[in-house]
Amino acid sequence: MEEDLSASKQPCAQPKVPQCAGLGCDKPAKLRCPTCSKGGITDGSYFCSQDCFKKNWTTHKKLCKRETGSEKKTEAYNTDGDGLIIQAQTSAWLKHGLSGLHRTLEAQLSYFRRRPYLENIPDMEKKIEQGLERKLRGDFCWSLTFTPAFFDRLLFEGFLPICTDVSDQGEVHVLLPKWHVERCVLNQMSDLHYSKKVRRRAGRYTLTVNTDINQVLRGVIGQHGENWFYKPIRQILRALHQKSSKHHCRTFTFECWNEDNKLVAGDVGIVCGGIYTSLSGFYTEDGSGTIQICAMVKLLARWGFSFVDLGQHLDYKIKLGATMLPRSQFLQKFRSARQSALNPMTENQRWNCKELLSSSTEDSNAETQ
Length: 369
Hints:
Elements: E1 31-32, H1 34-39, E2 46-47, H2 50-55, H3 57-67, H4 70-77, H5 91-94, H6 97-108, H7 110-113, H8 121-129, H9 132-135, H10 148-156, E3 160-165, E4 173-178, E5 182-186, E6 194-195, H11 196-201, E7 206-209, H12 213-224, H13 231-241, E8 249-257, E9 263-272, E10 275-283, H14 288-303, E11 307-309, H15 315-319, E12 323-326, H16 327-337, E13 351-352, H17 353-357, E14 367-368
Parallel strand pairs: 6-14, 10-11
Antiparallel strand pairs: 1-2, 3-4, 5-11, 5-12, 7-8, 7-13, 8-9, 9-10
């Protein structure tokens, strides 16, 4: 589970009126190229007068035709290879294009000037090769690319991508790929600790996997608020929930049901090779959240998972047996385990939570007073 970013939100100011794009002219712009206006292009499209526009038309028309082509329109929308469109910004901001919006945010908000910008997969790979792991100060990079393919690759590299809305009105979403300075992990499945009370109560509950992602997401938002689970993130998580050979990672959900067959706890996360990364969870009955987490870990251990990535530090995670790993150690462990080829059997199965907590003899030391 990641932190609430609402306290750090800042209003995003509207872009300033640009100067004339005419060669050698720095007068305030009053007119805009009609072709650029239709294509949603702002850079180099404003002029101080009709005469200035005509004088510069020979040069401007080349830029105008190129920038209003299909490549520029696609860039503004965040499209994936399968045609899925993730609209992370409102139409009022899409007209600036991603590159224009990038420059605007970087110019107006110091938070983004101090952090690396990851434009796309090749740009991310280049920065990693150039030592991003060593150079990154703090936890965050940032990006405006909201596609399942990019999100998937971030996850494969050990990032935990979260999201913020810098406009505070649902207008401008920014992706924040997070490489924690320290990551909270259940280093070995046998490190899990839970009380006898948890085990006794577990018999009232059953666990399912990938039964209803929408209901789990509603539960998470119902307990924590939208936080960083904004609509673009929910769209991507649903896309990665589908089985696909082109993605390294897949969204998983774990659902905990009571005796009345009511969903009372759940977890949404990512499976990447032999690692499960928990993104967030919820519970509606006292104790059901702990039972769900413990049963989930036991099931993951049964399937052969190496460890569980729990994201940021929280006290309850440490009480369950998690430890903190520095970024370099976490990434070394993560890169080794992501190559595992596991195939969990999840469809149409239901496990009793108490049976899961009692199932493994090698974890007999997990139970505590």
